């Protein structure tokens, strides 16, 4: 006879029991209505996928012509703050952790907007129906407003003085002046700027990070900025004083550090961070620094000509929860929806191999679901609740 619906959600037990049976249990919920051969088969696929899932690692870099952080050409190995930058830094660690908890989760492309290919994008921030973009390079750095429906640049600041290299931006509420503001940091000058939403500069400040550089910045919606500097650390600043109050190292579940954290976005209590020279965006717990999810956006970059730069722009549309994603000198801005959800009326397992996802679905009868190619949803007929 049918038993009550039991939702299996392994949290603290996932590392003990779940990892022995199926690491995917931490993410997937399973409705156990009856034990039959189909469910046993599904469990097999879940276990099999955890051992065979292909994860696109840090060797899947855009390299275009190997554009480095400052816009110059980069070799496969480059010195960075006394540490050799290797394109294989996190390869084995991500492989190991992918067998445990991490998922290269699929996403749906909602729309594609044109983007200025001359724009060396360093940060995106969506506020009040406008997409703000911060750009870099000496003598070319600026802040501008973009129409998120057409991709058209509607307003821009003058180019910054040549000594500045623009980096990450974010919008926030200035509690002191009770006004919305846009903040922008710079790369090596250890200075930042504050603007009104109409791009009028109203303040300037100095800052310090672990590498003395500024890369990405976001705001938690309360009173804290989260800042990256190309290291493995997330720095937390008091929004009122712009002084660091704490920092946390970002780690995979096995303790391996994730270096070169770049553009940041704060979404639903988590920090999304892209990794320089990688097509991955990491979902990070800001309290512990632990990587909770990994989103693989290789398929977006593969739609572009090979000479375009790395992914380096993330912003969330406030009402829809969709993400705007672009990169340095990309011809497009992609609006995407992450399919990080569970359909209560449907249980299925995603089998990942060779970057193709097949969905095993059961409702009242056995149906077939559309194929998901390279992590991008081709047709979402069986995942309607994920995209609703």
Automatic annotation (TrEMBL):
Domain of life according to the entry: Eukaryota
GO molecular function (one): glutaminyl-peptide cyclotransferase activity
Protein name: Glutamine cyclotransferase
Originating species: Corethron hystrix
